[in-house]
Q: What sequence folds into this?
C-alpha cells in the first residue's frame, strides 16, 4: 500500500516549494480588498490578439469581469478598441499592465477604479442650515466612500423650520456598503439628520 | 372546540361571530366590564347587540369567563407593553387549567416570550400566536413549516397605517400631516396614531419573530431566557419626520420609502428604508407584506391584509384548527 498518494498528471504536488507560493490565486470574487479596474486596449486585427491580451490577466490571478470588444469599430489607425473590466488585489495591477506591454499590447488607458459599489441614501433634516458641504466632507472622510451625486430639495427654503431632503449617491469599495451606511448614520446623527437607507445586508 | 373569547373589539367579536362557521362553540365572551357565559354555547349575536347598544354583554363579570368551560382561550384584549397585563394573567390562568391559548394580543409574546414558554412547558395546553404578526398573513405558520432554524431573516411592511401614509404621500406629493388627517377620517389611523407611525406596532411584530428565530437555536428554557428579546431591545425609528420632498427625491431615482421591520438572530430594526419603487416590499395602501430568507428555499414573500377584524380572526381560527 503506497504511503503517499501520487499527484495526478498536471496536478501540483503538495509541498513542492516556491511554485505554490508564487502561483496566482483567485478568490472567486468575494474577498474584499479587491479593486476593480477598467483597461482600454487597442489590438491589431490579427488572429489570436485578444487571447494574447487576456493571458496576462489570468496569469496574474485577476478576475475578468467583462470584455467589450467591437470588431467592427476601428480606430483611425485601423486597430480594434477593447475595453476590459477586471478585479484584482491592489498589488497585482501594475504587473498586469507590465505583462501586457511586454507582449506588445497597446494599453491606451488603465484606470484604477477604486469603487466597486454604489449606494443611494436620502438625508432628512436641516441640511442647509447645518452646512451641507461640511456634512458631505465628513461623510467622505469617515466612510472612505466618495460622493458621486447629490440632489437637494428644500421646498420651504433655508432657515425655515421645515426639513429639507437630499438624495445622495455614494461610491463605495466593493462589499463595504453596509459599513458605509453605518458611518453615514453616525456622521448624520451629529447634526440631527435622519438617514433613509436601503436595506442592509440583504441578499 | 369550545372557545372562551376575551376582548370584544374588532378581532374578538369577529372570532365569536365566525366560530360556528368553523365548527366551534363560543362558551364565554368577555370585554373589560362584563361577560356572557353558557357552557352549551352562547348567543353571540344577542350579546354583541347589547354591546352595540352600550349595554353589558351579559350578566356575568369578566372573571367568570376565565372560569367557564372551554378548550381554547382566545386572548384578544388590547396589546399592553411592559408586563403585558392583564393579557399575561389570562394566558397563565388558562394554561394552569391545562387549556390551550391562541393570542391576538401581542403583549405576552413580545414582552415575556420565555415566561409564556415556561408556563406552556408546565401545562398540557399549547400556545399559538399567528394573529399577532401580519393579520391574515400566515407568517408564523410559514416560518414553522419551513423550519425556523433555517430562516435567517424575516422582514416586511407590517403596519398598514404607516404604509397608507407613506404610499399616499408618495403618490400625491402630499405632506405627512395632511395624509395623516385623511387616514384618521377614513378610520385607517387612530386618533392617537403614535403606536403605528412611530414604529412601535411593527417593532412588536418583529420582536415576536426574532423570538421565534432565536428559540429555534435553543435547547432549553434557560437558553431561551438568555436570548429572548423584547421591545426595549429593538432599534425603532418612525415615519413622522419624513417630508414630502424625501419621497419625491426617492421617486426621481425609481425608489420609494417604506417603513420596514426586520427580524434576524442579531435583533430587530424598524425604520424608513429606501426600496425599489416596483420591488417586492413596495406594497401600497394598508396592505402588508412579509419576506422570509430561507437557507435553502431562498426568498419567499407573502402579501395580504395585515389588520382588520375578520382578517385577523381568520388567523386566530387557523390557530384553533391547529389545536384540534
A:
Amino acid at each position: 500500500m503506497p504511503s503517499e498518494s501520487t499527484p495526478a498528471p498536471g496536478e501540483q504536488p503538495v509541498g513542492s516549494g516556491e511554485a505554490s507560493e508564487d502561483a496566482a490565486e483567485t478568490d472567486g470574487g468575494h474577498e474584499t480588498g479587491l479593486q476593480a479596474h477598467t483597461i482600454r486596449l487597442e489590438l491589431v486585427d490579427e488572429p489570436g490578439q485578444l487571447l494574447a491580451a487576456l493571458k496576462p490577466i489570468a496569469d496574474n490571478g485577476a478576475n475578468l469581469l467583462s470584455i467589450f470588444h467591437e470588431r467592427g469599430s476601428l480606430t483611425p489607425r485601423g486597430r480594434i478598441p477593447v475595453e476590459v473590466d477586471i478585479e484584482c488585489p491592489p498589488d497585482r495591477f501594475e504587473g498586469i499592465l507590465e505583462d501586457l506591454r511586454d507582449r506588445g499590447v497597446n494599453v491606451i488607458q488603465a484606470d484604477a477604479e477604486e469603487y466597486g459599489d454604489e449606494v443611494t441614501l436620502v438625508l432628512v433634516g436641516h441640511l442647509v442650515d447645518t452646512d451641507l458641504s461640511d456634512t458631505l466632507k465628513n461623510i467622505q472622510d469617515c466612510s472612505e466612500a466618495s460622493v458621486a451625486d447629490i440632489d437637494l430639495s428644500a421646498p420651504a427654503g433655508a432657515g425655515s423650520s421645515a426639513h429639507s431632503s437630499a438624495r445622495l449617491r455614494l461610491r463605495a469599495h466593493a462589499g463595504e456598503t453596509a459599513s458605509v451606511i453605518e458611518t453615514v448614520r453616525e456622521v448624520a446623527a451629529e447634526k440631527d439628520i435622519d438617514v433613509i437607507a436601503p436595506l442592509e445586508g440583504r441578499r | 372546540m369550545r372557545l372562551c373569547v376575551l376582548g370584544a373589539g374588532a378581532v374578538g367579536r369577529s372570532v365569536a361571530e365566525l366560530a360556528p362557521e368553523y365548527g366551534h362553540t363560543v362558551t364565554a365572551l368577555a370585554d373589560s366590564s362584563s361577560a356572557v357565559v353558557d357552557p352549551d354555547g352562547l348567543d353571540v349575536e344577542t350579546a354583541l347587540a347589547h354591546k352595540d347598544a352600550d349595554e353589558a354583554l351579559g350578566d356575568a363579570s369578566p372573571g367568570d369567563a376565565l372560569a367557564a368551560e372551554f378548550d381554547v382561550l382566545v386572548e384578544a384584549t388590547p396589546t399592553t407593553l411592559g408586563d403585558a397585563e392583564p393579557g399575561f394573567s389570562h394566558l397563565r390562568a388558562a394554561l394552569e387549567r391545562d387549556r390551550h391559548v391562541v393570542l391576538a394580543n401581542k403583549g405576552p409574546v413580545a414582552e415575556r416570550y420565555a415566561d409564556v414558554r415556561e408556563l406552556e412547558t408546565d401545562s398540557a395546553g399549547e400556545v399559538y400566536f399567528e394573529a399577532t404578526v401580519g393579520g391574515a398573513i400566515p407568517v408564523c405558520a410559514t416560518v414553522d413549516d419551513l423550519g425556523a432554524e433555517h430562516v435567517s431573516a424575516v422582514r416586511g411592511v407590517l403596519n398598514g397605517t404607516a404604509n397608507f401614509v407613506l404610499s399616499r404621500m408618495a403618490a400625491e406629493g402630499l405632506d405627512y400631516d395632511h395624509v395623516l388627517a385623511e387616514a384618521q377620517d377614513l378610520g385607517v389611523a387612530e386618533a392617537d396614531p403614535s403606536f403605528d407611525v412611530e414604529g412601535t406596532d411593527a417593532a412588536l411584530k418583529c420582536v415576536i419573530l426574532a423570538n421565534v428565530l432565536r428559540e429555534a437555536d435553543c435547547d432549553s428554557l434557560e437558553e431561551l431566557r438568555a436570548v429572548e428579546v423584547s421591545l426595549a431591545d429593538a432599534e425603532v425609528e418612525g415615519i413622522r419626520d419624513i417630508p414630502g420632498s424625501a419621497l419625491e427625491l426617492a421617486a426621481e431615482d425609481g425608489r420609494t420609502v417604506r417603513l420596514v421591520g426586520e427580524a434576524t438572530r442579531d435583533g430587530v430594526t424598524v425604520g424608513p428604508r429606501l426600496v425599489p419603487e416596483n420591488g417586492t416590499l413596495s406594497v401600497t395602501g394598508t396592505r402588508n407584506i412579509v419576506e422570509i430568507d430561507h437557507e435553502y428555499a431562498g426568498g419567499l414573500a407573502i402579501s395580504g391584509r395585515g389588520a382588520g377584524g375578520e382578517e385577523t380572526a381568520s388567523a386566530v381560527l387557523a390557530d384553533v384548527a391547529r389545536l384540534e
About this structure: Chain B has two domains: 2-135+312-322, 139-306.
